[in-house]
Amino acid sequence: MLRKLYDWVIAYSSKPSAPWALGIVAFAESSIFPVPPDVLQVPMTLARPEKAWQYALIATICSVLGGLVGYAIGALLYDSLGLWLINLYGYGQKVEVFREAYAHYGHWVILLKGLTPIPYKLVTITSGFANYNLFWFIVLSVITRGLRFFILAAILHRYGPAARTFIEKRLGLVTLGMLAIVILGFVVAIYAF
């Protein structure tokens, strides 16, 4: 089944709607969706390495726009949707500690957590809840999300054929590793503060 899904994503990458799917996943991941855009960006870039930079740009722009939705959820809907999402990811008990960290280290929180596998939606929602400066939130989100997606694009562009061969020979192991990174991100988010 995993091989069929991988083959489908690789085949889907050549379709005109593939960049739209990447954009939708990147947008949703920054506010409500648990799946990171990397799961589409990696196979899409492996299938079409000449589009690595385009895919990174799409993921960056859509992630930042989705981050603004997450910020709005935190700022305007925290008591309903925001709190529910924070609790869903197991972070409800630590929101006040996170808000205090924002008061002292807001720039660093966004920069560091935006690059890591820690769910970015926690950063966006908490940024709104903590009333973090919107201008700096946007600037730092562009920097951190851009770095994340463009570094991935550079690695895949440079080592794409070798990476594709490695992934295709060890698809189960690579998938398990990516799943472990996502789970680690959630665990770190829960226990970081």
UniProtKB/TrEMBL annotation:
Per the record, its GO cellular-component terms are: plasma membrane
| Superkingdom of origin organism | Bacteria
Domain VTT stretches:
52-155
What residues form the membrane-spanning segments? 52-78, 134-159, 171-192
Alphabetically list the UniProt keywords: Membrane, Transmembrane, Transmembrane helix
Name of the protein described by the UniProt record = Cytochrome b561
Q: Which organism is it from?
A: Azorhizobium oxalatiphilum
